[in-house]
Design brief:
By secondary structure, the chain is of the alpha/beta class. The chain is built from 19 helices and 37 strands. It is globular and about 85 Å long. It is found in: Secreted.
Length: 747
């Protein structure tokens, strides 16, 4: 049995179902929650995010950026010998006196694995062991990372600056974390063969908070909204509330369930829930056919020798005459099936099928097959039963290869190959080029989308999720060389991965820079600064787009909304100087929870604070007095939309709704702000005052009135913008999921 101190009145233990039922009936027990599994959800992104001349410069350059801040990584552990985590840098790392954690020592994680960069490392596996699924021979009861995921996220957040990236003998530049001088503390709670269990994750969060980490990164999540009165009372969400209440900023991946709407799996307002975008670096590749047609491809691989086109052969047409096998012949997994005399000095066409997706087949075996047959290269097409636009693996190859992106382009190659019986088909594979676009960021198709879910029946919550968006597609970062999945990166020290798991540590690292510059800011204030300075247009000023936008998933690329990217794409430099912040603390979040129907009875048990009915009655009286006088009140009855967030989200607007927001100046000078409103379609929005002057550290209150003008079941979006005369621009989104204009008849 394990007792939690920061997660109020909570403990984890193993029991039979009958005993669990008995516990639920006890008057002293509020919630019994079954443990469930949790799932895991770079070289260029610091430049793409303009850190060298922006946020790093503002925090003393890359030799100082993040120094003194400890980022806790709850994940699959860490490979401590990686150069991204060593402290033998030109400038010595300082001691971090506020951090209270320590470094476990085991056979795989010997003395000296930690240092002044990697300041702590623990592992948590009690729940995994209790299930009988933990295998010490492959999972390792230590902080050592045999999976790679934790090493990747840790280096994205805070890996050392200017570490050379080499894979399969090829150079891909130099890597750096977002906060390259920040310190890393690792809490391993996820394992190679089994994923993770919530009880182990809760224990890891508890320990990280007790150890005084400044930032927490959680690149994993539950598989679906949990049962119960509200998603916000899930044990993981409450643990993150406890972390935020202890002044720990939490970055959490929203999940990879996109592009469908309402798939986010990070629910609560005290969490910075991170969506994933494509950034502006793309790897381009082409193949040229014998008929001079050029077809787009992908893959990190060289081209075929010289500038001429070479003979092309389909895998099935290269089989030995006596071959009787039908297994994997299209996928090129065994060279013994084919006639080397047929394949030699040709480019072979192989097929990417479901076997590659589930791990039965590998690109490594495919390439080895063609090499053993003395082929010059390989073109990899997609199987007919796979969806269009496959997300092919991006592992670098030293052998000429090209992945064909779509079914249309696959058909073009096969039609050319089969359509000229009297001519030998030929092809040239061009080498990979690196290009930089200006259309980024684009919301990645896999990134989970809003609106937020209030419960497991998918009632819509009045909290904007995602919170923010950061790069999460094709991210280079450190890797554990003993990790064998994906097999393409075995024995390598870097890997290129995609997912919201890769996006969250970008925000964790940027939050470390913000905390370094503004140590007084609370987690809510840091989240506010990120959100209100985010951008929603690309470098040409065009509105951001999403792959398969949640409002119309059948569209390959279309207009994105706040439910796709949250407040917008992160602007690290602007977030260091937001001008105004929307702050909130534990009591505010408790008041928010108390507004949920049926929740007051469990709020005290989960948070340690009881709902204050007197406060609600007092606020109700104030609203009644204000409405009687016809004025817009300065404070209102507590409802979800009253929480002081840098956004306002309304699930169903059926009548005039009044809310308030308090802004606090974190600027250095007196500043005058002018308010402008971009109204959501079919909604009237009023703000008072429309102009105000605010001193440093002063707080002002804004009164908001939203009224439906038409009935619609379609979400509509707008924003409120506060423009200061000292250069600050503060934007917060307004999202209305549905609205009903009530008809009033004659009495």
């Amino acid at each position: 049995m394990e007792l939690m101190m920061h997660v109020p009145l909570s403990f984890c233990f193993k029991c039979a179902c009958l005993k669990a039922s008995t516990l639920r009936d006890l008057e002293e027990v509020t919630v019994v929650e079954q443990d469930t599994g949790v799932l895991t959800q770079t070289t260029h992104t610091p430049i793409y995010l303009e850190l060298p001349h922006g946020a790093w410069k503002e925090t003393g350059g890359e030799q100082n950026a993040g120094e003194g801040i400890v980022i806790g990584i709850i994940d699959t552990g860490i490979y401590p010998h990686h150069p991204s985590f060593l402290d033998n840098t030109q400038k010595p790392y300082p001691n971090v006196s506020h951090y209270k954690g320590y470094c476990e020592v085991t056979a795989e994680f010997p003395e000296g694995s930690c240092n002044k960069k990697l300041v702590g490392a623990r592992h948590f596996a009690a729940a995994a062991i209790a299930t009988g699924k933990f295998n010490a021979s492959i999972d390792f009861a230590s902080p050592f990372d045999v999976y790679g995921h934790g090493t990747h996220t840790a280096s994205t957040a805070a890996g050392n600056h200017n570490v050379a990236v080499e894979v399969n003998g090829l150079s891909f530049g130099f890597a750096s974390g977002m906060a390259p001088r920040a310190h890393i503390a690792v809490y391993k709670a996820l394992y190679k063969g089994i994923g993770g269990f919530k009880a182990d994750v809760l224990a890891a969060i508890e320990q990280a908070v007790s150890d005084n980490v400044d930032i927490l990164n959680l690149s994993f999540g539950i598989s679906h909204p949990s049962a119960g009165i509200a998603t916000f009372f899930n044990a993981l969400e409450i643990a993150m509330l406890s972390a935020a209440s202890a002044n720990v900023f939490v970055a959490h991946s929203v999940g990879n369930g996109g592009p469908e709407a309402q798939t986010v799996l990070s629910f609560s307002p005290w969490i910075c829930s991170v969506a994933a975008s494509l950034h502006d670096r793309i790897y381009t590749k082409f193949v040229t056919l014998g008929n001079h047609a050029t077809i787009q491809a992908t893959g990190l691989a060289p081209g075929t020798p010289g500038s001429k086109r070479h003979p092309l052969i389909l895998a099935r047409d290269a089989l030995k005459r006596n071959s009787t096998s039908n297994y994997s012949i299209e996928e090129c997994q065994n060279s013994s099936f084919y006639d080397e005399m047929i394949v030699a000095k040709k480019v072979m066409i192989c097929t990417y099928s479901t076997g590659f997706v589930d791990g039965s087949f590998t690109v490594e075996k495919l390439v080895r097959t063609v090499e053993e047959l003395s082929g010059l290269g390989v073109v990899i097409i997609s199987a007919e039963n796979l969806y269009d636009e496959i997300d092919f693996p991006m592992a670098p190859l030293s052998f000429p290869a090209a992945f064909i992106l779509t079914k249309r382009e696959t058909a073009a190659i096969l039609n050319y190959y089969n359509g000229r019986p009297n001519h030998e088909p030929k092809i040239r594979i061009h080498g990979t080029n690196t290009e930089f676009t200006h259309s980024a960021p684009i919301v990645a198709s896999f990134s989970s989308r809003g609106p937020d879910s209030a419960n497991d029946h998918f009632k819509i919550a009045e909290v904007l999720k995602p919170t923010i968006m950061a790069p999460g597609k094709d991210i280079w970062a450190a890797w554990s060389p003993i990790a064998d999945r994906p097999k393409d990166f075995k024995d390598q020290r870097f890997a290129i991965l995609s997912g919201t798991s890769m996006a969250a540590p970008h925000i964790a690292g940027i939050a470390a820079l913000m905390k370094q510059k503004n140590p007084q800011l609370s987690p809510a204030a840091l989240q506010s600064a990120l959100a209100t300075t985010a951008f929603t247009t690309d470098k040409f000023g065009n509105d951001l787009k999403a792959q398969n936008p949640s409002g119309n998933v059948s569209t390959k690329l279309g207009p994105a909304t706040y439910f796709d990217y949250g407040a917008g794409a992160v602007d690290a430099t602007a977030a260091l100087d937001p001008g105004l912040i929307f702050d909130a603390g534990k009591q505010d979040f408790v008041d928010f929870l108390c507004t949920i129907s049926g929740a007051p009875s469990i709020v005290k048990a989960t948070t340690g604070i009881a709902c204050d009915n007197n406060k609600f009655n007092s606020q109700l009286k104030k609203e009644h007095q204000s409405s009687s006088s016809g004025s817009m009140p300065s404070s209102f009855i507590q409802k979800p939309t009253d929480l002081n967030l840098p956004s306002i989200t309304i699930a169903n607007l059926t009548a005039t709704l009044m809310a308030s927001r308090k802004v606090t100046s974190v600027g250095k000078k007196i500043e005058t702000y002018i308010v402008t409103v971009n109204e959501p379609k079919g909604v009237s929005v009023r703000v008072k005052p429309m102009k105000f002057t605010i001193k440093p550290q002063e707080t002002k209150e804004l009164a908001l009135e939203l009224r439906p003008l038409e009935s619609s079941g379609h979400p509509s979006f707008g924003h409120i913008k506060l423009c200061g005369n000292k250069g600050h621009s503060v934007v917060f989104p307004v999202s209305v999921v549905s609205k009903v204009l009530m008809e009033v008849g004659c009495a």
